[in-house]
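In keeping with the milestone schedule agreed at the kick-off meeting, the structural modelling team has produced records for the first pair of proteins. Each record is given below as a sequence line and a structure-token line. The laboratory manager (R.T.) confirmed that both were archived under the project's standard naming scheme.
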Amino acid sequence: MVASCVNGSNSKQGRFPIHKQSTTWKGAVKMQVHIFRLATKEDAPELARLLNLLGHAPTTRSIQDCWDLWVYEGNSAFVAAHNDTLLGVATLHRMVVLHRSQPVGRITALVVDPAHRKQGIGRALVAHAEVALAQNGCGIMEITSRLDLADAHAFYETIGYKKTSVRLLKALDQD
């Protein structure tokens, strides 16, 4: 249960190069600067809002309660931000498995606010994730996605991902 996570030690999060994007509308330049950066614990309210769009139910408090342990265990997240609003997030995990010669990078959640889709934000978040995980020794990337998100699957395939396996899920009894 997320709320039962304990706070781990404070860990350092590195900085990733900032990516800026501008948009032109109707012949006039309207600057929309999207900053792509590592998420911080202070982003919890916006992260909760975005992750709820995927059908998950984290709260600001549950994210803050688990943040330090989550980062300590090798997780991170990139966000696309405009002023104080997050437009999208990609949560990442790096794992070492016995059956592969290099670590596996995984995007465990990717969501862009519906009002900001089709602007390249999701593609940029995936690109940031791929670079960061490759720099951390990952040899392959995988993305987890619910079966009913057909549009997301089509998007992943357009950027080079292939359906290769099935993931099965079972809730474990906590008693």
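The second protein of the pair:
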Amino acid sequence: MMSWDNLEYFCLSTNYTRSGSKEVYNRIAGWAFDNTRIWKNSVSLGADGSIVNTTKWQLNNDGSGKLASGSIAWDAAGNVTFAPSVSLAWDTAVQKGRIYARGTGANRNESRIVKVNGQELSVSNSRGLALTVLNRNTLALVSTAVYDVYNNDTNRISLAIALDAIGSDRIVVLTSYDAIGMNTRLCTALQRCGGSSLIIADSRIPYVLIGIPGIGKDNGLLSLTDSGSTAPFAELSTSVVDGIPQGINCSGKLTTYIDGNGIYTGSISVNQIRVDANLKVGGRLLRREYYRMRCLE
């Protein structure tokens, strides 16, 4: 059946002139068909209701199928299988804005690691502290350098100078490898970026600090273990929201914290007993070395 302008709408025919076989020429709206299927180009609809495009994709009548040449496949129960080559958009969403850092010591000789959004950055495994600087808005790598601060005051001061030169529009990540050491000058620079007041003598211990320049002492994220042969690595993992690694205190007004010297806080109120930041109870100043409170009945 043809239109006036010679367009084929429908046709049923068989060519018996072919030697040793026959050619079926059945068409409807440009699709060929026989008694088992209907097809056009590489797409075929079978008698059982399955639709196949050669090896590219397939939708079976039992609910199973495949896409992307089989890289994505599912069974009739809906169990989906992804080939290793498939990159999922939600994987990117999960990883977005994440920082992972690992510091090691000679107790367990493994590489230091800094990852951003699941991608490991290239950071040297030279001895000492590696300073990795990231853009707070994009987490793009700004710079990385390693300072051998083990038994070396010159390098400690160099690292301190480098830290002091970094602005608050950056995130700093410090990771250890093999051995580290600090002096007062370096400790002060680390405190500016959120580090603690603890000065680590030359030691082969794992250390990690994630901070922001200018946030002040004890406001960053710090992981520090020990030099025992079974001690864990120093590891931190955080999500960055609006340029702030979660867990970091950017106000600079931390009133309760723990460091190597003790526990520090503001006022404590328990029923009728009040202890202020100067360790005064009922107006009386107590000695820090020893204090006793007596509750009157």
